[in-house]
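Q&A log
Question type: sequence-to-structure
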Amino acid sequence: MKLLAIESSCDETAAAVVEDGRRVLSSVIHSQIEEHRQYGGVVPEVASRRHAENIIGVTQRALDEACQSLEEIDGIAVTYAPGLIGAVLVGVNFAKGLAMAAQKPLIPVHHIRGHIAANYIAHPQLEPPFLCLVVSGGHSHLIEVLDYTRFRIVGRTRDDAAGEAFDKAARAMGFPYPGGVFLDRVAQIGDPSAYSLPRPRVEGSPYDFSFSGLKTAVVNLLHNAAQKGETVCTNDLAASFQQAAVEILTSRFVMAAQELGYRKLVVAGGVSANSGLRRAMEDICQKKGWQLYQPPLSLCGDNGAMIGAQGYYEFLAGHTAGLDLNGVASLPVDAQ
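Response status: OK
Response body:
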């Protein structure tokens, strides 16, 4: 079964053709990073306009690279939640038009489910059940993936998402948007023990995350140093911040895996590209004899292939939509 998949939840206009949920025939991504960098972050109105301008060309290129016509496609999968609502609606309405014109099934896909499904592309042997850590600019979750379309949230962030904290801390250090990439780069040459930073916990919720206090500690440290005329070593501060964030993520992940009885662990989302997190998870799972699955860097960020992968399993489960499908800005991953 070949699906044409469309993703437009933030600032990447993406389309892909995916066969049977595992084989990527094409994947095209048009990024808006350079334009949004001048504003220090994603401007929703600008993102929506660029999606509207680029979505036809991106989709046609995905079909051409897969050597497929719209008539040969078996269904249209699209991200319908969560995300920047204007951006999401561009993709949803375009997909609805394609589905109606070509008389193909319309398959709504949750964006976070798509990030998890990126691992099905990278690791054909991977099957549920498993425990997944989803970390991105807008989400930080611990999720039991019970089946391809059945999920249970066991932990989540109470304030900032991990990727948001990385970007805000990086911005305070003077790095351009998106700062998490630059922070990761210099952290590799810094001293992670140079600065003492907090590891916040959520009282009574051992699997939940909190990153606001860590981010604020970095901002305050920089402000206090500036007021006193002191010099802060950016490389060391970046390394200290990254180590603290990684310890927060891995400690909850490992605790949940041990207490819930999982030996198969999966990492997904944009922050799964972070070198410190990847190394830490590899070390932990190697020592404990656990199976670890992480997506390649090419599948960590937003892309259409992951939507096509999850869309296949949503279709098999009977999850299709009519032309009344609407975009949703916020929706739990376990919502049916």
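Response note: The chain is about 45% helix and 20% strand.
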